Amino acid sequence: MKRTHGPRPAAAVALLFGIAPGVVYYAQWVLSEPLFLACTFAALWLLTPKPGSEGPLAARDLAPGLALVAAAYFSRSAGLPLVVAAAVWLALGRRWKHLGAFAAAFAALALPWHRRSGGEYVSEFWLINPYAPDLGTAGPADMVRRVGGNLSEYVLEHVPAGLTGMSGIPAAVFGVVLAAAVLAAGFGGCARVRASPKSSSRSTRV
Questions:
Q1: In angstroms, rounded to a whole number, what is the distance separating the alpha carbons of residues 49 and 65?
Q2: CA distance 75 to 188
Q3: Distance between CA atoms of residues 173 and 186, nearest Å
Q4: Using one digit for the tens of pLDDT, what is the confidence trace for 113-168?
Q5: Distance separating alpha carbons of residues 197 and 134, to the nearest angstrom
Q6: Which of 60, 79, 142, 195 is close enough to 72 for a disulfide, judged by CB 3.0 to 4.6 Å?
Q7: What angle (nearest 5°) sits at the alpha carbon of residue 61, between those of residues 193 and 30?
Q8: CA angle, corner 21, sides to 86 and 7, nearest 5?
């Protein structure tokens, strides 16, 4: 945040996140949460281009950043979207060698990890209600409803409540504004990544 918007917005975001009720709560009750957050933010820090830099990141920044992406996943399965985002980011930047190496290294660790767990987490994902296995597995229509319900709950309730402690209409308004900002940032980031190979032709490729 400091690299892209300066120190004051960065300090405000850091303060908001540091005192967020959800962060404070889960850091006490879910022991893997602090490690997961540390790996996630360290990965984002390493993989964010430096101000004024042109072309793709150097391998010395890319390799540890991707290693921390994998570490975030192995500390909490909630890190899987970060793994997917890193792979898409490499693909958009046309860094096929790095994408292949990342995919191979991640698969070499993730497949044994998955087998060791017996696939319990994945099997629970397909249940209509993990806390009531007797209800059976979810079909395509159930999954669509689940995605829609989760998206609504997280945007309107869980995320704004976790960040600010608000509830009701103020939380819903804050969640919608935040979701819109995230979408705008995502589209802008994709545009920058897609343009980076063109600018890298003027600089030394890694």
A1: 12
A2: 29
A3: 20
A4: 777 766 566 667 777 777 777 888 878 888 888 888 889 999 999 889 988 888 89
A5: 52
A6: 79
A7: 90
A8: 60
Provide the CA 205 distance to its chain's centre, in angstroms: 27
Query: Nearest-CA neighbor of 36 among 1, 7, 88, 78?
Result: 78
Q: Collapsing DSSP states into helix, strand and coil, what is residue 125? A: helix
The residue type found at 183 is L
What value, to the nearest 5°, has the Cα angle with vertex 159 and ends 156 and 178?
A: 75
0.90 cut: is pTM over it?
no
Question: What's CA 75's distance to the chain center, in Å?
Answer: 13
Both tokens of residue 152?
């609504």
For residue 58, give the DSSP letter.
Answer: P
C-beta separation of 21 from 161 below 8 A: yes
**Residue 46 structure tokens:** 């390493």
> Of 124, 125, 185, 179, which Cα lies nearest the Cα of 153?
179
- The CA distance from 109 to 92, in Å, is 24
Between the alpha carbon of residue 10 and those of residues 53, 130, 148, the distances in Å are: 20, 39, 32
Contacts of 133 (CB under 8 A, 6+ apart): 127
